[in-house]
Amino acid sequence: MSYSFIEKKLLARCAGVIAVVSVAGLIALTTGRRVSAQSPPGMVQMGREIFRFDTFGDEDFWGAKLNLHRAIAGSKAGGTGPGLSPAAALGLGLKVDADAIPGQLAGEIRAGRVDLNDPANTLALLKLKAVVGVTGVFNASGTLSSIGIQCALCHSTVDNSFMPGVGRRLDGWPNRDLNVGAVIALAPNLQPLAEALETDENTVRKVLMSWGPGKFDAELVLDGKATNPFTGGSSATLIPPAFGLAGVNLHTWTGWGSVPYWNAFVAVIEMHGKGRFADSRLNGPRFPLAARAGLANIEIDPDSDQVTKKLPALHLYQMSLPSPKPPASSFDPEAAKRGDELFSGKARCNECHSEPLWTEPGWNMHAPRDVCIDSFQADRAPDRAYRTSPLGGLFAHQKGGFYHDGRFATLGDVVDHYNGCMNLGLADSEKRDLVQYLLSL
């Protein structure tokens, strides 16, 4: 058996020793005290492990059905095509956890002695569990036999402290570099998606490639609508942040439900994990594909359910993620102070973005006319409305634009939109001050 450079370094370092540590034991090792997995701290830690590493059994879809692992491995490693090199993976917006890379290997990478254009090194990184949000399943001979994905794929990024695309994890931060559609389009077999969408594989691939970085269309498998007729653009929406949600009522841009609702929806319907899901609203005529596929009531034997029992811990972990604070050098504090007065006064922002939740306590939804935009994405959701998005940590997700579909490139554009929509009469200097305040949140 031949090994990649990374595998040889890993084998030399680990010397074949395998350690299995429970979640509670891991906390005890790092904190020096015993923590029950059923206690709130233990459940938060368990939720982090679920968020980062649990596939919910979805490798049966991404691997066994779509054969995505074969495209990643490449023909030289038992797959198909050229394979996916680390450089190409980073180019697609996938991230690498620097803490999962052994120290000696990290030094070799920094010295340029690791070929980042070799797909064999992607497989080695998968064996290290270093690719954020992706799990490789390997057989006894070391061949990649399947692939699974986790919550962290879309809702984590890294701080680039090691190199671009490689660093320490930033859980809850949306990965606005990740080209989800292009990653899925690598799969040799898109027939399962084509059947779900009642079309052909070429059309599926074209739609996937239309999304672009940082976007995903969760409703596509429900209604089959791939284009926004008002804008002519893709129907995909920006990946939202998963931090700062404690106390926030509805989740997602169009308020489908609470955080645990959306966790179940995504784990079962989007990630194709093995779990129970129920929402009678999906039986309506607005969701023809969902109704035909029986997505309104997905049943599974409780002993085979790999999702439901994990929802409480996953929810607790997400609620524990605060909005990150912006670096002091990233905004003008004096301008931000003036912007604060405008936010609660002349600009009327606080009428909806109530401090400190930065959204309404209670029913945080608005009709499209209230915010002066088209109704397309709202009409794809049960309440035909848009959620007031929390504003904490705005600095962390400026890439890709603002609003659900990134239609406003900058915060200045958002302020201009509301200035006209609500006849606020803001002067240019006031607009600039308001932007600096938003960047300070």
What is the element layout, followed by pairings?
Layout: H1 5-14, H2 23-31, H3 40-53, H4 59-62, H5 68-73, H6 86-91, E1 96-97, H7 103-110, H8 119-127, E2 134-138, E3 144-149, H9 152-155, E4 156-158, E5 166-167, E6 169-171, H10 180-185, H11 191-197, H12 201-210, E7 215-216, H13 220-223, E8 237-238, H14 259-270, E9 277-278, H15 288-293, E10 297-298, H16 311-319, H17 333-344, E11 365-366, H18 376-379, E12 386-387, H19 411-421, H20 428-440
Helix pairs in contact: 3-16, 14-16, 17-20, 19-20
pLDDT under 50 segments (min length 5)?
Answer: 10-33
Shape call: globular
Judged by helices, strands and strand pairing, the structural class is mainly alpha
First-to-last CA distance = 54 Å
Task: Provide the spatial order of strands within the biggest beta sheet.
Answer: 1-5
Number of strands: 12
What percent of residues are in strands?
Answer: 5-15%
Q: Output the radius of gyration.
A: 23 Å
Mean model confidence by pLDDT: 93
Largest beta-sheet details: 2 strands, parallel
- Tally the helices: 20
Helix share, percent: 25-40%
3D structure, described in words:
With 441 residues, this protein is mainly α. Among the domains are: 5-183, no CATH class; 328-440, Orthogonal Bundle (Cytochrome Bc1 Complex, Chain D, domain 2), CATH 1.10.760. The chain has helices spanning 5-14, 23-31, 40-53, 59-62, 68-73, 86-91, 103-110, 119-127, 152-155, 180-185, 191-197, 201-210, 220-223, 259-270, 288-293, 311-319, 333-344, 376-379, 411-421, 428-440, and strands at 96-97, 134-138, 144-149, 156-158, 166-167, 169-171, 215-216, 237-238, 277-278, 297-298, 365-366, 386-387. α3 (40-53) packs across α16 (311-319), α17 (333-344) crosses α20 (428-440) and α19 packs across α20. The model is unreliable at 10-33 (pLDDT under 50).
